Structure formats: structure tokens, C-alpha cells
């Protein structure tokens, strides 16, 4: 096999990058191979999308099939730039290959951000459950109050009716 | 530069005035030319070079002794040790001596392992005698000094691992190949050849470029983790994953190789 037989090389990088700012969070999704051939495509991540309002950077690597040292440098760079910007960094959906590579590089701090993120999500879920419980409790209280109010209204109407009847009787007697 | 064996699995060899090594990634044959008077220094350098050459699981190591001055045949012990090392560490690899001085021949005849060493009149004759390597698989790809060559070399590995039914080794093998090609494009900037072969219980990966300078392994203890990721992480990955890896001079530049143990599937 030779390079000449295969014709001209295709454009560098089999990787695509998309970014979106939602609220104060910058979501970056990378698909393809985070590798040497894609270094030009990956250049400028995440700086080109970091605006003053961004406080969280989420790098979703669910669609990353392969990563090498160049790709790892990008992850480390994204973490560093995000923190320098004062934003938190979350690496989302790393593959087994990527986790293995991060472990190999001793760069588990990037994985910790995933773990931290999981903890945050768990905490958030717990908070939501507590809020739902509180809402149910308040609704129950409100229902009790409405029922009590209804009983009171019924009682008052009974008393008013009784008073009406007494007045009618007095009028008839006089 | 001296032939170097760094960490336990790292074998970097550079040419010296007395010891010229040339590896051919396509045939798996390494030629070694030993020049000058045999002595302690040359013995140590030759022993290290032979060890590094056989670590690569070659088809053969052909040693040209035409310019060796060894009137007492003292080098015979080194060739016998080399032969035993090849038999134990690199089954299937052979050591062939060319143009062997008479005194060395005489000493070799007196030792059982010496009699088992292949002999030839010249390197072309030694090459002609070698059979085609019985590797289960061998494929190579000639690539330009372009970043996309890393991706194309990974596809070569993909095919090899699929054919050899080594799905577990696909990721590590692709990582090694990607780092080798990236280094060749980045530092050598020349056309390169990526090769993969199945050699015994090992998957052999090699990249040949046209730059003689050996790869440099960065000491991780000299740099903080962040800087380590910035510099030299690729070869550290190779060192961590590979059974053995190293670099050998070739006719036009060098060959950087690595072996992955694939027996325990």
C-alpha cells in the first residue's frame, strides 16, 4: 500500500465541534477522534466561546471514539482555561478508552470533575425530592385549611339558618 | 552516542563510529556492523545493541565482522551470549555472523551455542539464505508528513486487530501507532512508513521516518503533571502500554518500534 495509491489525503481531522451557551453554561460537544490530526480543528477550544456570562463549561465527549496525547492536552487545556475564567469544568460522558487514558496519564483530576458533577447531580436530585415533599406537605396543609374553612362556612350557614328560623317563629308569635 | 537501554522496556540505539546498526522494517532484518579493535568498551556497547536489536523480535540480526579486529577471538563469548539471548527472549529470531575472523570462528567451534550460530560470507549471502518470515500477518502503509497520516495509520491497526481477532488490543495499539506517527510528522517532517506485524506472541508496530535523531523520553519526575501532559506524554503512554519499545537506526533515518504482548487473549 502506498500514499500515492490512495490519492490525496482527506482534510485534516475527523472531528467535529459544536458549542452552545445556555444561560451561564457553555456546552461543547466533540464528535470523532480527539487526536493529532485534529489539532487545528481543536485549536481555540474553549476560549473562542468563553464570554463574561459563562460560569460553567461542559465538555461532552460521548461521541469521541479515540483519544491520544494531543486530545488529552485539549482536555487539560479546557480545564485550565475554564478555571482561569472562573468557570467550573465538567467532562461529560467519557468513554472507557478515555477513562483508561486519563488514568494512564495520571490526569484523574479531569475524571474528578465528572465525579464532582455526578455528586452535584445527585445532590440536585435529592434537593428536588425534598422540594417535592415540601410542596406535597404544603398542598396537604392547604387542603386541610380549605376543608376546615368549608366546615366553618357550613356551620355558619347552619347557624344563620337557625337564626332565620327563630326570627320567623318570633314574628309569627307576635 | 552510545546504544542505550533506558527503562526496563525501552531500547534506544544510535550509531557510533564502531557500531553501525540498520533496521529494515519491511523484512524485519537488522544489520549490525562492528568496526575496530575488540575491547571492553566495544564489548559492552555490542552486547547492549544486540539486546536492543533482539528485543524488537526481528526475523534476524546479521552482524558484519569484516572490519572487526579480534586476533584472539575474544568476541566469540559475546556472540554466544547473543545467540542464547535471542533463543530465550525472541524465539524465531536468528543471529547470523558474516565475514567472521578466523580466531573468532575457532573459538565459536569450541562452544555448543557457538556452533548453532549461523555463518555467512557476506550480508547479501546472509540475506539470501533467510527465508521469508513466518509472521502470521504483516502490512505496511507509506504515508506523507501530514497530520492526517496518524488517522490513516490507526486504520491500518484497526484492520490488523480485526483480522487477528485482537479487539482488546485495538485501543492500545492505535494509541502507540498514533503517537509514533505524530512524533514522526512533528519532529522528522518526512515521509514515513507505518508497519504492523504479528511476531510470535507479540503485535509489532513500527514507524520508519527519514530523521536519524532518536526519540527523547521526558522524565516525568522533572515536570509537574500539567507540564507532563504538555510534553512527552505520548512516549510515556507507549512505555506504559508496550511490552517493549525502542528505536533503531535505518538506512534513511530511524525506525521506532513497539511490541504488545497479545498471547493472553
TrEMBL record, chain A:
InterPro entries: MlaB-like_STAS, STAS_dom, STAS_dom_sf. CDD domains: STAS_anti-anti-sigma_factors. It comes from the Bacteria. Residues 15-128 form the STAS domain. Pfam families: STAS_2. This is STAS domain-containing protein. It comes from Actinoplanes palleronii. The lineage of its organism: Bacteria, Bacillati, Actinomycetota, Actinomycetes, Micromonosporales.
Automatic annotation (TrEMBL), chain B:
Keywords: Kinase, Serine/threonine-protein kinase, Transferase. InterPro entries: Anti-sigma-factor_SerPK (IPR050267), HATPase_C_sf (IPR036890), HATPase_dom (IPR003594). Residues 143-259 form the Histidine kinase/HSP90-like ATPase domain. Transmembrane segments: none annotated. It comes from the Bacteria. This is Histidine kinase/HSP90-like ATPase domain-containing protein. It comes from Actinoplanes palleronii.
Amino acid at each position: 500500500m502506498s500514499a500515492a495509491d490512495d490519492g490525496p489525503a482527506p482534510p485534516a481531522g475527523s472531528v467535529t465541534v459544536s458549542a452552545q451557551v445556555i444561560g451561564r453554561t457553555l456546552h461543547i460537544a466533540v464528535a470523532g477522534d480527539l487526536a493529532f490530526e485534529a489539532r487545528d480543528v481543536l485549536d481555540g477550544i474553549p476560549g473562542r466561546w468563553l464570554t463574561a456570562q459563562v460560569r460553567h463549561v461542559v465538555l461532552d465527549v460521548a461521541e469521541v471514539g479515540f483519544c491520544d496525547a494531543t486530545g488529552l492536552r485539549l482536555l487539560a487545556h479546557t480545564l485550565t482555561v475554564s478555571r482561569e475564567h472562573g468557570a467550573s469544568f465538567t467532562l461529560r460522558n467519557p468513554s472507557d478508552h478515555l477513562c483508561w487514558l486519563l488514568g494512564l496519564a495520571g490526569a484523574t483530576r479531569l475524571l474528578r470533575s465528572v465525579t464532582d458533577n455526578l455528586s452535584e447531580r445527585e445532590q440536585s436530585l435529592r434537593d428536588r425530592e425534598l422540594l417535592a415533599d415540601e410542596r406535597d406537605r404544603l398542598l396537604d396543609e392547604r387542603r386541610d385549611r380549605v376543608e376546615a374553612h368549608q366546615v366553618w362556612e357550613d356551620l355558619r350557614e347552619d347557624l344563620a339558618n337557625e337564626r332565620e328560623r327563630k326570627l320567623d317563629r318570633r314574628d309569627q308569635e307576635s | 552516542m552510545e546504544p542505550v537501554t533506558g527503562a526496563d522496556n525501552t531500547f534506544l540505539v544510535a550509531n557510533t563510529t564502531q557500531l553501525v546498526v540498520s533496521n529494515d522494517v519491511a523484512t524485519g532484518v537488522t544489520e549490525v556492523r562492528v568496526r575496530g579493535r575488540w575491547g571492553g568498551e566495544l564489548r559492552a556497547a555490542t552486547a547492549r545493541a544486540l539486546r536492543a536489536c533482539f528485543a524488537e523480535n526481528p526475523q534476524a540480526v546479521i552482524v558484519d565482522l569484516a572490519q572487526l579486529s579480534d586476533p584472539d577471538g575474544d568476541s566469540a563469548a559475546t556472540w554466544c551470549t547473543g545467540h542464547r539471548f535471542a533463543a530465550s527472549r525472541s524465539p524465531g529470531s536468528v543471529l547470523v555472523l558474516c565475514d567472521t575472523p578466523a580466531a573468532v570462528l575457532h573459538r565459536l567451534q569450541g562452544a555448543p551455542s557457538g556452533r548453532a550460530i549461523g555463518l555467512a560470507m557476506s550480508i547479501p549471502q546472509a540475506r539470501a539464505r533467510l527465508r521469508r518470515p513466518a509472521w502470521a500477518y504483516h502490512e505496511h502503509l507509506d504515508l506523507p508528513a501530514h497530520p492526517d497520516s496518524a488517522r490513516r495509520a490507526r486504520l491500518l491497526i484497526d484492520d490488523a486487530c480485526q483480522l487477528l481477532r485482537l479487539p482488546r488490543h485495538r485501543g492500545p495499539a492505535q494509541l502507540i501507532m498514533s503517537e509514533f506517527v505524530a512524533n514522526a510528522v512533528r519532529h522528522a517532517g518526512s515521509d514515513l512508513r507505518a508497519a504492523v506485524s504479528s511476531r510470535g506472541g507479540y503485535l509489532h508496530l513500527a514507524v520508519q521516518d527519514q530523521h536519524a535523531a532518536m526519540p527523547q523520553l521526558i522524565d516525568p519526575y522533572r515536570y509537574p503533571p500539567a507540564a507532563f501532559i504538555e510534553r512527552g506524554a505520548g512516549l510515556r503512554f507507549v512505555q506504559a502500554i508496550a511490552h517493549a519499545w525502542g528505536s533503531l537506526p535505518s538506512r534513511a533515518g530511524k525506525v521506532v518500534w513497539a511490541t504488545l504482548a497479545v498471547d493472553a487473549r
